[in-house]
From TrEMBL, chains A, B, C:
It comes from the Bacteria. Residues 36-137 form the Rieske domain. This is Aromatic ring-hydroxylating dioxygenase subunit alpha. It comes from Sphingomonas populi. GO terms for molecular function: 2 iron, 2 sulfur cluster binding; dioxygenase activity; metal ion binding. Signal peptide: none annotated. InterPro entries: Cholesterol_7-desaturase, Rieske_2Fe-2S, Rieske_2Fe-2S_sf, VanA_C_cat. Pfam families: Rieske (PF00355), VanA_C (PF19112).
Length: 394, 394, 394
């Protein structure tokens, strides 16, 4: 397990100094000691090497003999050919140029034509885990990788929930996406045809909770009209109490607990419960792998209902992507300018998240450990046994 | 009205320091205190927000309730979404992200979800005017914008003239276009099939007049064969006296007075009179919005004649654009090299124009006022009542 | 003939200082005092101006009145229009903008509209020669250009050989191609379906000879199975003795002598003799004009055999190009990183070649003469009269 004292040593003992420099470059804009979602399980077929750049680092993913996912630096340390152009051999990759073989620890085990394997003949190997239908990767010091710290996204494959996971490539910095998820007042203007309506902006009672490494934003809207996509999913025929709770954990995990109940006196007539689970993985400074899952609890066993709900949500994500990419284009066209010149009340959550990120990146840059420990967070809603009643009681 | 003393204050009191820096960056290559043509009137439909970058600044144009054109900075000061992605509401724009509203002065008048409007919630508003079928924009200190200083392009909609206005996007710096217009010896080699022939280079008596902020180049060719496009427009059947007068005013206004008369003794048998009116608006350092109008006085009432003449001229512009873009590509491929290593006699006009521009940019950079005042220019041909006889008498 | 003492003067007396600086910029990555292949003879039609960038310099090629090739800087010194957009007039080019004429020495001989020709009105002229079906260009000080130093590629048009020459544009730095040609162990993994098989890596007896300005790598494989393309070209029906000799001369000439014999006791039953002649001409830092010829001596008079052999070889070049471009993309994505972190035994030839190049570039940067003299090289195989027996005797 990682100890802070080891950290700078880790960076120094990389296979060469230039390698370390490259890492530091990425580390100035990305938190490295963190889990990220690298892929949806289904993206990674057997017998195929899958290439994806994460936090600026090109990575080759493949399945070993037992089906387990292995992730190696996607650049042969011999002559820079991407390893994804090579061949899988058991739990190793053979480079497609001069045939060197690298095992699942990144160590070279064969150099055709010679016995001696130089100490520098090694590529980086990344800790990876399969969980909740996703492949998770640890981008920092492998010694610090802790399975228990993989963010809790259990709703994606838990009983009592009908869920789907999606991937969209976005030409924008990951922060723009996190800010979006933490300020839901945009629903009214961007998503008026699906999940937004005037209620979100005008009637919402919003509270912000700011932790050392997290943010929680709670919207409670009582006695409001349900938005179009709610009505399409559950047969509401009158006003509802509606909630939207967003929990942010760095670097870029946003879990949304949303839903509504229609009451008659003390009785609940109809109820909608959703989890919208976002894992925003940086690719480069201006591009992002955006993974999002959506789970519904009102008809968990009905695939058609889940498909319908997710198709509604998908439309809202497509609306958001247009926004992100337009923001990024405007920012890239004049990078000297601040992206935001003032903040609104509704920005309080996003603003705190950005401050947390900035502080962590500064700590990382100064060599302090920034290890993101998901299990130590305080603000995520504590879920009772039934899990569905959480917001109703608020 | 602008006073020099106010100037630096204007730059300082921009909504934030970064904004001012961005302006200064553009100001190192573009004159800011000047009118520019932003669009042809017809480009700007009602109910549509039109986006165009001018002098490096992205701008959203739209028509207010009374049909008047309004121009706002095309980047929301909240989170950088381009405002052209929003909605028109009367004389205001509502941003398409969080719904803030900006009026025609750029001031934010509504932030959904809160009462307080922060002082920084403002985008830049640009003075705009409709004149001669074009939309003109003032890129500098709004306090200095003076309608009387809009360059005189009245031939585009004056009685006695048949005219058309055109737009072409050019992948080249605006200076390459100005230089082209001020050295008409290229007509022989680039436009031999239309308006050029050997006469332009070989027989022209050229005079150069150099003002403090302007240039005039006069070509008089006596007893020469009219070029192909002249012959196609007017039934010349013998040699003519031909003239081409180019007047340049900074930053990039070039008005060409061209024509020819066929004489028999003291009598004028046939006569061709054209105005070619160029407004060269920088987009970025390597791209330009090139607006040009063309007016003819020989058959002003006959639309077919005007169309025919303009189609001839249009062909020459297309030939020029190929040249500009090839020059720019060569320059961009090796930017350390001077674009020109020596000058010819024919370059005298272009050379002076570039010196004027360089001097003005230097003055602007040092904080001196460079306000371009069109009405104070001296060298533009003084037009007699009939306007057509001007060159004949020269 | 060039004397070292003249050299720095040459760079200083270029038409202007910026020109010299531009040259120096290219000189930091390219050897300038060298012949390069600029084009295949057939690429350069009569009456057409052919544009190609070599070692970072844009060049216009055309044929003069006698059919001889002339090469001028492809950027008019007047206003930067590429000269390839102009017209051929005898042994001169007329610029397509203002009509200036430049003769085959680069000197301006006509400026339309004036008598005086300024001293700076000159573009660079490059020594060019036609030899072995190729057009060769000298990129350095013209005074040092020596026809005798054009690399020996005579097999491309010699009696007793059937040959073809090919061109492929590669999006990779030229060094990646040189390294490839000097380490043939990649044949097994990249070209298994054509010229490679396990023998290359596993059974080869390889010797390296390192000269001051050259490298020779000799592979002798005795009693091995001939690879697929050998068997397709000559009817081998048993094991062969096979050889591959690679000779490298800077900047980037690699000549491969390859072949095989099938013996029965002292008798030679079947024999395959090939020359693979590579001229790797840098275009920019990340792109290359790759010329390669292939000659066969087993059926020199049969065009169909030559076509078949070359089609086999062409397939291997296409496989290599994929490798080069993938390497370059990986390198360009993270340019701070070394392209190679260690070397294998098989790298010894490529490694020495890169050291020779680095040393020559360093000498060039410090103003020392680096003039590449092909005739003074020592290691190229000395060919007996019959030329075919060379490798068999080794
Ligand atoms: S580049 Fe991978 S083995 Fe050589
Ligand atoms: S980005 Fe315009 S209102 Fe937020
Ligand atoms: S640019 Fe070549 S003659 Fe003017």
């Amino acid at each position: 397990m990682g100890r802070p004292g080891r950290r700078s040593k880790f960076f120094e003992t990389r296979s060469c100094a230039a390698n370390a420099r490259s890492i530091r470059m990425n580390a100035s804009i990305f938190i490295m000691d963190s889990w990220y979602v690298a892929a949806i399980e289904a993206e990674l077929a057997t017998d195929t090497i899958f290439a994806r750049t994460i936090c600026g680092e090109p990575i080759a993913f493949f399945r070993g003999s037992a089906g387990q996912v292995i992730a190696l630096e996607d650049r042969c340390c011999h002559k820079s050919l991407p390893l994804h152009m090579g061949m899988i051999e058991g739990c190793s990759l053979r480079c497609g140029y001069h045939g060197m073989v690298f095992d699942d620890t990144g160590r070279c085990t064969e150099i055709p034509g010679q016995e001696h394997i130089p100490a520098n003949a090694v590529v980086r190997a990344y800790p990876v885990r399969s969980r909740h239908g996703c492949i998770w990767i640890w981008m920092g010091d492998p010694a610090l990788a802790d399975d228990n710290e993989i963010p809790d996204y259990h709703w994606l494959d838990a009983p009592g929930w009908g869920a789907r996971t999606n991937y969209v490539h976005v030409k924008a910095n990951y922060r723009l996406i996190v800010e979006n998820l933490l300020d839901l007042t945009h629903l009214t203007f961007v998503h008026g045809r699906t999940i937004g309506n005037a209620a979100v902006v005008k009637q919402a009672g919003v509270t912000f909770e700011r932790g050392d490494r997290e943010v929680k934003v709670t919207h409670i809207m009582r006695d409001v009209q349900p938005p179009p996509s709610y009505r399409a999913s559950v047969a509401f025929d009158g006003p509802v109490d509606r909630w939207m709770i967003v929990h942010y954990a760095p670097p870029s995990f946003c879990r949304l607990y949303t839903g509504a109940v229609q009451r008659q006196g003390d009785q609940i007539l109809r109820r909608l419960d959703w989890r919208n689970l976002n894992a925003v993985t940086p690719e480069t400074a201006t591009t992002t792998h955006y993974f999002w899952g959506h789970a519904q609890a009102h008809d968990p066993g009905d695939e058609a209902v889940t498909d319908f709900v997710v198709s509604q949500i998908k439309a809202t994500f497509e609306e958001d992507v247009v926004i992100f990419e337009a923001q990024q284009a405007a920012i890239s066209a004049d990078p000297g300018r601040p992206t935001s010149r003032f903040s609104t009340k509704a920005d309080a959550g996003a603003q705190h998240a950005m401050r947390v990120l900035d502080r962590l990146l500064k700590e990382q840059a100064s060599g302090q450990p920034v290890h993101i420990k998901f299990t130590e967070l305080q603000l995520a809603p504590q879920l009772p046994a039934s899990d569905v009643d959480i917001a109703i009681d608020i």
